[in-house]
Amino acid sequence: MTSYPYFSINNQSIFLKIYVKTRSPVEKIVVEEDKVVIFVKKPPTKGKANKEIISFLAKKLNCSSKDIEIVSGLKSQIKTIKIENKSKEEIINFLGQYKEE
């Protein structure tokens, strides 16, 4: 059985622990064995990278940006994201698309 140390479920919400790399030439997601890395173009100033993370994930997950919230790590590269209105299976399938082999 595959384990997912980077996400947990509490009530109807999924919590995803991510590591953020800013000032990347491309936006992308890389799922490693023990972490999810999100690359964004914006710098980590005045919340620009945080806004980009939310809009990027909303686009990729095909959901509203209102369904995604940074609940910890606003000023850190390590963040916890809360995702609403998605099932565990949807998140597992989503992350599977970006898993490194």
From TrEMBL:
GO CC aspect terms: cytoplasm
InterPro entries (alphabetical): DUF167, YggU-like_sf
SUPFAM superfamilies: YggU-like (SSF69786)
Superkingdom, natural source: Archaea
Pfam family, one: DUF167
Family affiliation: Belongs to the UPF0235 family.
Annotated NCBIfam families: DUF167 family protein
Protein name listed in UniProt: UPF0235 protein K9W45_05145
